[in-house]
Amino acid sequence: MKIFNLIVILLLPLAASADWQQPELSHNLTEIKKAITASDFELLNMDEEPVRLSDYKGKVVLLNFWATWCPPCIREMPSMERLYQQVESDSFDVLAVNQMESIDDVFAFSGQLAVDPTFTIAFDSTSEVSRDYAVRGLPTTYLIDKKGNIRYRAVGGREFDHPEVIKIINQLIAE
Amino acid sequence: MMTKQNIYSILQVYGLLAVLSLFATPAYTAKVSVYKNETSGLLTWTSEDEGFSIELIQLLPDFVRAIYAKHNFPADEIERIASYCVFGTILKNTSDQQMKYYVKNWRYQAKDEDSRPGRLRPVKTKTQWLDEWRRAGITFSWTLLPDAGEFEVGDWQQGFTTIELPRETAFDLIYKWQLDGVAHSGVLEGLKCAPENITE
Hints:
The complex is a heterodimer.
Chain A: H1 2-20, E1 30-37, E2 42-45, E3 50-52, E4 60-66, H2 71-86, E5 92-99, H3 103-110, E6 120-124, H4 128-132, E7 140-144, E8 149-155, H5 163-174
Parallel strand pairs in A: 4-5, 5-6
Antiparallel strand pairs in A: 1-8, 2-3, 2-6, 4-7, 7-8
Chain B: H1 4-23, E1 31-36, E2 43-49, E3 52-58, H2 61-70, H3 75-82, E4 85-93, E5 99-102, E6 107-110, E7 121-122, H4 126-135, E8 148-151, E9 156-163, E10 170-179, E11 182-192
Antiparallel strand pairs in B: 1-2, 2-3, 3-4, 4-9, 5-8, 5-10, 6-7, 6-10, 10-11
């Protein structure tokens, strides 16, 4: 298995470098016209402690579905960290739900990032949560309001610390 | 010599064409570009159509093997998907409307032995792969381009597209999408499956 991991590391820059990462990240979020209640779930975090979405009730939550092999997920992650650092933490949180990878995989991956994510990463080891949220592809992100309703959605990578996104989050916080 | 009747017939035909043109989808010429990665020699095709962009990136079989080996696929399943012509695929909604696509409506066409266009074949969907993987005891369900997408403004997605053709085979891809319920289609001509290895 290690040899294949090595091949991925060696070939990824060749197959992927400029190619997979070309599209510019936009900042559009799609408003969900009819509010949908975000299903609660319980997953483990990096410390193998349980994390529930309901733990975040009363906060606006950016719920992101991702994986380490997904180039746009990697690209948008620094902007999620910047967003997390910029917005008041009493009212806002970021929860990144990894799909079917191990804690070791993600730990190794985060060590390669320029900025280590400080927001919570949870592990959806069977992809059951992503199925509940009708996630077809990665990354997919939902913005959940303080009452636990899904209010916005983004399919594909985004620049989450864009002023327009921060404005939407602050509007949801102010509600 | 043109008789009055001939002229009348010609005018009728042109009149009919003029009426038909009112109902046709506005003509849009896709902008197609091909990019060669200088390091790997691998090719990327991009087509910018009306409100829809598609990018296909050649992937080496070893890259595909490595991706699925990392996810603990059995060796025979790794070889099976690596035997396909696999492209990294990026789809984008470049319009200000809702865009939908369904991979089941996409087709590809290679030339036959006599260099004539072969039969149109459907692109294998993610659902078809997942059914086969489930039967092989595999629960992993990511990396492949989703079968269908409903993209709002700014949405985009990527994943693998698999074409059942031998290495380095040239083919055309016929793809379809909808913009606000209106059907569109495009063709990417002269796509080529990646070689087995990087060649100098």
